[in-house]
Design goal:
Elements (H helix, E strand, L loop, with lengths): L1 E6 L3 H14 L2 E6 L2 H10 L4 E5 L7 H11 L4 E6 L2 H13 L3 E5 L12 H12 L13 H14 L13 E6 L3 H8 L11 E5 L3 H14 L3 E5 L3 E2 L4 E5 L3 E8 L2 E8 L10 H11 L5 E5 L8 H9 L3 E5 L9 H7 L5 E3 L4 H11 L1
Parallel strand pairs: 1-2, 1-3, 3-4, 4-5, 6-7, 6-13, 7-10, 8-10, 13-14, 14-15
Antiparallel strand pairs: 9-12, 11-12
Length: about 350
């Protein structure tokens, strides 16, 4: 049995979440009403996984998370509202060490939480076996750190570019554990990096703009959400818009990134597989680098394997550094990985290949 601690200040939400996981049949469940109780239950109950609300009295979810990660690190799945404020708080939680997040449909007190029952159970099961990447950063220091990041971004020199480069393209697929992993990799790309970078992170629509803005504060390259058709420019990182799929196309002789309605053929969105297929259709595989990072499932493994077969280069994140070794494992098992690396070494390898090409 998996020991699950459910933390929410709403009695209704605690009851609904408890019923969902009781129905799964393989969870031993305890409940907590606020962050203080969560920290104490983490000591006493010693859960295998925690679902944690953000907005709670006495001690909020971010403060509780920082204590949990400092005292007894455990996989935590944040349960947050689909608002801009909820997105920002969730991204802070992921930076503090939370494994994943579950957006509440319908607001803070969600009467329709049962609609996402399969996703809830799947994410919590995956989190229970995830590797913890704890970042013990005091919550009181978050505002100062974000202000310093913004000041650094404002001081960056503007890189003047001459238009679309023929050199190539980097595509990145990532899911569970992705935000903190990307925050470790993308800032390592230098300001003069000559290729565009397309990133597909499984994430809802309300979150991707905030995520792109956050990355833009810490990266030397410009980071934007691909929310509308855009000509792909070198030295720019494009984050796929949540609630849609991202593809590339040739528009007037220029490679363009397009958001499209979610394709029901694919299970995960934004779809890594769909992006990979469109890149194979419109780009020279020999000038494409594919990077498969942490995440559950197999999204993108087929197109990335085909990319390698056609002469492209691919990186699969190693099991040692993955939060969830699902997507990279599928790529490796299909023979689609040119090289397997810890996340800390991915940016350096991409730079080596780009400089060679």
């Amino acid at each position: 049995m998996t020991k699950l601690l459910i933390v929410d200040d709403s009695a209704l939400m605690r009851r609904q979440l408890s019923q969902i996981f009781e129905s799964a049949g393989d969870f031993e469940i305890r409940l907590a009403r606020n962050g203080q109780e969560a920290v104490q239950q983490n000591r006493d109950f010693r859960p295998d996984v925690v679902t944690l609300d953000i907005n709670m009295p006495e001690m909020d979810g971010l403060t509780a998370l920082s204590h949990i990660m400092a005292e007894r690190p455990v996989p935590v799945v944040m349960v947050s509202s689909l608002t801009e404020k909820g997105a920002l708080a969730t991204l802070e939680a992921l930076n503090l060490g939370a494994v994943d997040f579950i957006p509440k449909p319908g607001g803070t007190i969600s009467l329709s939480i049962g609609e996402i029952k399969p996703e809830l159970i799947a994410k919590v099961r995956a989190a229970a076996s995830a590797r913890i990447k704890a970042k013990v950063t005091p919550v009181k220091g978050l505002a100062k750190r974000m202000r310093e990041d913004r000041e650094k971004a404002a001081a960056r020199p503007v890189i003047v570019r001459r238009g679309l480069s023929d050199d190539g393209l980097v595509i990145i697929g990532v899911s569970t554990g992705g935000p903190s992993t990307l925050e470790g990799i993308l800032p390592q790309l230098p300001a003069e990096f000559p290729w565009p970078v397309l990133v597909v992170q499984h994430m809802p629509a309300a979150f991707t703009k905030s995520f792109a803005d956050r990355l833009n504060q810490s990266c030397a390259l410009r980071v934007i959400e691909a929310a509308s058709p855009m000509t792909i420019e070198p030295g720019t990182i494009y984050i796929a818009k949540g609630g849609a799929d991202m593809v590339v196309a040739n528009r007037g002789g220029k490679l363009t990134v397009l958001p499209k309605p979610e394709n029901s053929e694919f299970l995960w969105h934004p779809s890594v597989e769909l992006l990979g297929r469109s890149v194979l259709e419109h780009c020279d595989p020999a000038k494409v680098i594919g990077v498969m990072l942490t995440g559950m499932g197999y999204d993108g493994s087929e197109s990335f394997t085909e990319l390698k077969r056609r002469g492209g280069r691919t990186i699969a994140e190693s099991e040692d550094s993955c939060v969830v070794f699902g997507m990279p494992a599928e790529l490796i098992n299909k023979g689609g990985a040119s090289i397997v690396l810890d996340a800390s070494k991915v940016a350096a390898q991409v730079n080596v290949w780009v400089n060679r090409l």
